[in-house]
Structure to design on (392 residues):
């Protein structure tokens, strides 16, 4: 099944990592909600922007956790089979991440 | 009140812009929720990363809408009074935005 | 003359700033040359990449020095005349800077 | 020799790639020189900034060419030997690239 990560082939994604990712995503959702409230309360733009910069950094961290996991599992498995296509794809995606 | 944007001094933030910003923030919250589901469903990491890159871009747009509004109102008012401190602050914050 | 910065209208660009910018650009040119040599000497890719990241940061600094100067002079003058076009343009350019 | 890229272990870096990289670095050096001249000629800040953004993009391209080469050779060789340290290192460096 192409749509699913190679994790499913052997073992599910590491539970600890899934928990870590979901906690981070929840925290980011909370921060986004905070920005929404700040706009409702007509708060100082500078403070809104600092909060947005913080969310961007938190999101970048999530992206790199997923990327690292992908590289250490799916991509590495492919490399061991002399298939470099997923590596090339991962590098192209990385270029698009902040 | 230093904590509040200069908008409050004269007029509240433009309603249209507030609506636009809140719609964007809602959409981003939905996208974040989508990423969370993708992780639950053990979806392909490459697809998760593409989604994260999309959220990063959407968030960057929100940041620049807030920045532009800030520059066109608060910062411009200060500049007209020969006060460049909010401009300097805004540039420092911009450096931190993606 | 549209091609020239508003500095020319009144005074030339601050000499100190020009010197600062040119020193930074020279240093970056030297760093670039260093990367070229590292490639000739078949140096470790990781070290080449760290050097490239350093150049990117140095270039970002130069960009923000020019941006700040632009905002504090040309853009501010226009704002005082209720012309926001150069501010809008500057924000669009900032989005393209790293 | 730790300082040298794994290329030296087997074969030198691909000549074509070295030529490509050096051409790109030369072009960037020329662009930097152009910015220096623009500053001397007191050219419009907006144009200087657009040129700096172009250099940043060109530099990012160079970084990703080196990264991809590194991943396809050194890092992949290590992965095949179940050594993931260079992959982890490469991901950390990627975070620092623009």
């Amino acid at each position: 099944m192409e749509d699913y990560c190679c994790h499913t082939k052997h073992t599910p994604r590491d539970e600890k990592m899934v928990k870590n990712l979901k906690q981070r995503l929840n925290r980011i959702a909370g921060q986004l909600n905070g920005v929404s409230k700040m706009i409702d309360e007509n708060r100082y733009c500078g403070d809104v922007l600092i909060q947005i910069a913080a969310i961007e950094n938190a999101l970048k961290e999530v992206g790199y956790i997923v990327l690292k996991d992908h590289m250490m599992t799916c991509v590495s498995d492919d490399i061991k089979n002399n298939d470099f296509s997923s590596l090339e794809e991962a590098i192209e995606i990385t270029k698009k991440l902040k």
